[in-house]
Every structure is written in C-alpha cells, then in structure tokens.
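RETRY 2/3 - previous attempt timed out on the joint model. Re-submitting the same 754-residue input unchanged.
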Amino acid sequence: MSWGGAYTRSQVEAYYKPFTEATGINIVSVDADNPATPIKAQVEAGNVTVDVADVEFADAVRLCDEGLLEDIDHSILAPGADGSAPEDDFVPGSLVDCFVPTIVYTIAVAFDTTKFDTPPTSIADFFDLENFPGKRSMRRNAKSNLEMALMADGVPADEVYDVLSTPEGVDRAFAKLDTIKADTIWWEAGAQAPQLLADGEVTMAAAFNGRIFSAAIEEGKPFEILWDGQVYETEGYVIPKGAPNVEDALKFIAFASQPQQLADQASWISYGPARKSSGALVGMYQDGKTDMKPHMPTAAENLTNALASDYEFWVDHDAELNERFNAWLSAS
Amino acid sequence: MAQIAANEPPVGLLTAADGAPLRVALARAQSRARRRAFLLVAPLLLFVVVTFVLPIGQLLYRSVWNPGFADHMTNVGAWFDANPPGVEPDEAAFAALAADLLAASEARSAGVVGTRINYDVPGTRSLFTAGARNADELAPPFREALIDLDEQWASPELWTAMRAASSAHTPNFYVAALDRKLDADGSIVRVPETERVYLPLFWRTMFISALIAAICLVLAFPVAHLLATLPLATSNILMVLVLLPFWTSLLVRTTSWIALLQSQGVVNNALVSTGVISDANRIPMMYNQAGTIIAMTHILLPFMILPLYSVMRTIKPTYVRAARSLGASSWTAFRRVYLPQTMPGIGAGVLLVFILAVGYYITPALVGGASGQLFSNMIAFHMQRSLNWSLAAALAAILLGAVLLLYWLYDRLVGIDNMKLG
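RETRY 2/3 succeeded.
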C-alpha cells in the first residue's frame, strides 16, 4: 500500500517489477491518502489485507510503539554497496525496529526564477517580503513551518528543536510566521504548491521537493529549489501486525532496500535514497538527460544547512502545536 | 373481508369463513401482510444496519471509550481505585507506575499508553516511552527513581490525566472538543485563547452553512420557477444545464473555481485589463472565506433547485390567476398564495443544503485558505493526520448532535411531513 501518483509509479518500476521477475511473487498495489490511517484501522479491526505499507518515519514509530506493526529483523537487509553494515549505511537514526527506510524526502523552499532579478539564497529570504516581493505558500500544518521560521530567524539547524521545546521558542517561531501570514496561501495537497507557483499566485513556496522537480523537469517550469533550510524526513516500508504473508513481505523489503534498488527509484522521482552507499549509484532521470544527483535532498551540497525532522519531538507535540497553529490561522 | 362477513348470519359475533371471529382473522391477515412487508424491506434494513448504523455507532462510541491507558496500566489503575481523587501519589503509587512501565516495555505498549496521556497533557508521550525503556533499571524508592529519570513524573497535571485515563470510559474527548481541559485539581477550565480552535470553528461552520443555504435559496428560487413554468421542451434543456454540473466531479468544479477566481485568475485578469481595478488591487476571492462560500454555493445549488422545482411543478397557475382576478396585487398574490405552496420545497432544499454544507471538507480544504476552514476539516485532520480518532469521533458527535437538534427544531416549527425532497 502506497501513496499513488508518480511516487507509486517509481516504486513499481524500481521495486515491484524487478521483484516479481526475480521471485515470481506478484505484487498488487493499492493507494491511500496516508497509508498509516488504513493500517491502524485494519490492525485494530483484526482484518489485515495489506502485507507491506509505505509510511512516514514518524507514523512508523508511532504505530510501532502502539504494537500495530511486525518487527523487522535487520539481519535480512543487504549490506551497503561499499560493504558497510546496514546500520551504518542507512540515514543515521532512521533504521528502527519495525521500519526500513527507502527514501529521504524534504520540504524545501522553491521559487519562480522569472520573478526575481537576484535569486533568494537563504531561508531568511523566504520571510523577506521587501527584497523578495510576492506571496508565499506553505503547508497548512505546524510541522516543518515552525522549524523553517526559526532557521530563518537565525537559529542554527542543530539547535532548532531545543529552542522549539521551550514556550518562548514556539512564540518566536509563530512571531516569525506572523511576518508573512497575510501574504501566505496555505496548501493542503502536495500538488497545490507547484500549481500555485505555476499560476503566478505565489513567488515562493515551501513544498515537497519531488513535486517541484516534476514540474520543473517534466513540464519545463522555471522553478528552482533553495536547499538552504530544508527539513528532511525518511519514509519507508513497514509490515502491519497480522499481515497475511509476512514471509513474502520480508523478502520484498529485503529486496527493495538493496542499494541498487534504492538508487534506481531515484530515476523515477527526485527523492533521495535512504542509504548512503546508494548515492553514488544514482543515475539519469528516465528522460535520459537529467543527472539526478544534484536533485537529491541528500546530495552533499544540498545538506549545508539542512534539518532532520525530529520524530520524537513531533509525536510528542504534534497535537498541541497543530492546535495552536490552527487557532493562530483562524485568528485574523 | 367484507364479503366474507356479509355471508355470515348477522347474529352474535361476526366470524370469518373458517369460523374464527372476524377480528382475530383480520388481525391474523394483517400481521401476515406486515410480516411480508417487513421481509421485503429486510434486506435494505440489514444493509443499512451493517454498513451505516454499526460503523457509525462504533466510531461514535470511541468518543467516550479509549482503553489505551486502562488496559495496560493495571497497577496504577488499582491504586487510583483505592485512593480517592486529591490524595497525593505516594511511594505505592510510584511503585505501581514502575511495575506498569516494566510490563509496558515487555508488551510494547508504552506508545499506546503515552499516546493516550499525550492527548491530555502534551509532551508526555516520550515520557512514557523513555520510562518504559529504562523501566528495568528502576529500583526502590521508585518515587525518587522516576523523578530522577524525568521530573515531569511529579507533575500533578500528569497524575490528574492518568487518573482520568485509568477508566476506559471518559468524557475527556468531549471536554477537549469544547476547547476545555482538566486542570491539576481535575476541574474543567477553558484552554488559553491562543489554543481555542473547535468552538469558534463550530460557530463559523454553522454561520457559513446557513449563509450558503440562504444564498442558494435566493438563487434557486427564480430558476426553479422558470423551469416549472416554461414549456416542457425548453425547460428540459434548461434542466440539463442544471444537472450537467451536478454530474461533474466535485474536484473538477472546485479547481475550476480556483482557476477563475484566484488573484491571477480569469476574473481578476479581465477586471484589470478592462481597467475596472488596478493591477495592485486584485480582489482576493480565493483562499479565504469568500472562496469557500462561492464554490460551495455553486456545488450545492442543484440540491436546492431540484426540490423546489418538483414542488413548483405541482402548483397550478390558476391559483395565482384567481388571486389576481380577486384584486390581489402581484406581490400579495406571490406572498400569500404562491410562496406558502412552495414551503415544502423550500424546507427540503434549505435543510438538504445546510446539512450537506455542514459536513463539507474537500472544497473548503482546497479553496478555503486560512479563514474558510470548516469543522469537518478538523475531523479529517484528527482522522488522517494526528490519528486521534477519539477526538475525531467526539467532534463528529457534536456536529451530528447539532444537525439533529436543528432537524428537531425544523420538525417542531415547520413539520417534517411538510417536506418534499423531489
């Protein structure tokens, strides 16, 4: 079970087809808005129909802690392309009991190159309406917006969550968001952000990098990503507790998480492979002329001022900060 | 029956052909007919119960029932049972807590427990998961050991929340859904102003829905009248124009409105190019309340036109003509003769549009921006994103209760039999 669209397509090409070819095990793909929701429902109802699901890291940890997922033994995972142990090869901290990461995706600021004479260079420029005029767009939730606001306010990436854990830090983040509140259009669905940019409604948008890439490369839009201040997260596979074919599911996860497979997926969508050793294996986009390496959120030059989303912080404070965020939004 | 009865001698009790008293025979025949009728509707009844009543009932039940804490923290639960509210948690309480944390770490249920408490006291989920991780290192005295681990364990607010959660049945989610919370003494207080979401949103939803129903009525009334009075051939063509958008996908219609109304959209561009407004003063019609109202009015308009039309078609034009010939002005004839006859259609249309509007969430999510969000958007949020289904259920129950209340009011004021849905 996955998210549909270009993302599912990339999984079909990089994982499903080669897996069926290698093992003869057929894969039926179903889509959900957020696979974590049906997983929770299915396991609680004791009627699990899905063997493998693709969920966000934070959801995986949450479901795992609630005992809704099968444990995945990390010894089934292939070593890195350079022979390193899987524990060292995956993005630090992302390999946990019930979860094997496959991609790194990010929310980063994208801008329309035709709208600015001097392009923005830092996350602070996103909040600078004077030198970089035009409306902004951000996702309508607290997560990643608060972090970006603090980074724009001068908080170094490695201190963001320390600051955000204090009431003053939260106030500071909201105060920074206040400066662009009147000029921000909030998006709900991932496809809205590139659409708003394309329509000229906004000049800068904090969006999923994969969506911006598709619009820029496939549709030739003049969009560029400002990697400064990106907030990245991993996403990957879990097995719901009580899945009908756990054995096959484990086989599939072991297969799909091989370094080459992860690198292959990048040829279909611009999300970074979750293994370090896959980075060098990333090749051309399916159009055969776009080198995918600089488009990866995990590329070294894109990571200079990047923040790994802290799941522990967000499972603790998601509800509280979103309530505050929603109240902040509706107060005008 | 009457015939059978007629064949009997008219003395004493009336009996049927088989000699049974007529009353009994009649009752028997009627109950047989009722049984047959019930068998006919039984499949539908079963379908409705299985696919509608049961799941909705089950979900609503979640709003008062969340065993996340009670099922896994039995020792602390027992301590709460033995000690009335207000008793300071003593060493026995902390020992029970430590035992529960140890059990939770073995059963991998610390997340469930933490999630449950986190709903009431934000930031405590990791307290429980960390507590469970370190549970095997805890040694008496447990009070000091736990507070050493994290001083939050001593927080009175946490203990109040744990006491409240130690029973699987709880009104807490309704308390939260009404922008209130339990303070350290266990009394219900309002949350700080910066965190009040649900009540303001609830009133906004009611207001916007009523406004949309009113706008729909004003727009639909003349259209329905035209449809009902034109010759059939013409009105059929017009009817197709009403139904075409009705058959078009909701998302297509919503995104078309975005293309039309956004600040770089068709309408604003036309106004700027004709010089009505300047480029700097483009009218914001999208991503705000106006966007929600415009798009939803358009989407819900057919639900107003159709019941109105079906009622108006049955109104004979001769009534108004008679009123006119008796000296009524055209306004009086409309107000006193025509309008009252359309009441069943108006009632049905307004109720239908209002109830549909109250539950809408895709359209406001796409076009509503910050100020055009409705109550259902919060239900969807807790259903899909925060996975706090109990709160989602409580919010949904409040919405359902409000709609049922309005329905009851409508029945009292207008009468539900007086409604014609088409």
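Chain B touches chain A through 44 residues (CB under 8 Å). Closing ticket.
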